[in-house]
Amino acid sequence: MSGERVLLVTGGSRGIGAAVCVAAAREGWRVAVNYASNRKAAEDVVRAIEEAGSVAIAVEGDVGSEAGVKAIFSAVDAGFGRLDGLVNNAGIVGPPQRIDEISAERLDRMLRVNVTGSIRCAAEAVLRMSTRHGGRGGSIVNLTSIAAVLGAPGQYVDYATTKGAIDTFTVGLAREVAAEGIRVNAVRPGIIDTEIHASGGLPDRARDLAPSIPMQRPGTAGEVADAILYLLSDKATYVTGAILNVSGGR
């Protein structure tokens, strides 16, 4: 199986990340399932991948720290010896707050995980995939959010700001490495029914906001995963620098 492509999914133990891991396995990818603290959840995803007929490893590491990023990629190197795809999915959200209520500590953590972490993981992926560095090329898909466009006033302005940064980073990196065999795209989910809302203190947010969505329902993690797998696939070989809304029309 040494010739099979390897995908790293940050934050792969839950929600959209877990759905991407399992969907990728069904498409023949070997998968590194990253997690920050919940090893059991990551191991559950690994088992699901194995049941899908592929190979996976659980990889511990917090993308919000340089040591965590280094640990993640060292584990991928040791476990698979190659990298062909990265999904920058790891991200956090805080409880709803106005910007004049947000602490410096919350803002620092939000930026380190959602922005710096994604940039550092992409940099490590480029070092392994770029033809400039002797790599075979590859694909990076960043997770942004429709909040980057809407601004999330009164709730998550800090989160929305980090996702706006990822939009810009996607376009810039795509152009920077386009001639080095690497495609860089992003998926911009809307209201998706995952546990991230509970982590922000609003467990019923997806259901409550359904009437405000043109399609009148929240999306599913699987629907977002389908879009990500398209951008990773050979069906998107001429697609780079694109940001695909998966938002039900929002």
Question: Could you explain how this protein is built, in words?
Answer:
The structure is a single chain. Strands 3-2-1-4-5-6-7 form a seven-stranded parallel sheet, sandwiched between helices. The protein is built from nine helices and seven strands; from the N terminus they run βαβαβαβαβααβαααβ. The chain is globular, with a radius of gyration of 17 Å. The chain has one domain (6-246): 3-Layer(aba) Sandwich (Rossmann fold). The longest helix has 26 residues, at 104-129. The chain has 250 residues and is of the alpha/beta class.
Q: Give me the CATH architecture, please.
A: 3-Layer(aba) Sandwich
Q: What do we call the CATH topology?
A: Rossmann fold
Provide the helix percentage: 40-55%
Question: What is the element string, with H for helices and E for strands?
Answer: EHEHEHEHEHHEHHHE
Give the radius of gyration: 17 Å
Q: Ranges with pLDDT <50 over ≥5 residues?
A: none
Number of helices: 9
Proportion of strand residues: 5-15%
Q: Summarize model confidence as the mean pLDDT.
A: 94
Distance between the termini: 42 Å
- The structure class reads alpha/beta
Query: What is the CATH superfamily classification?
Result: NAD(P)-binding Rossmann-like Domain
Number of extended strands = 7
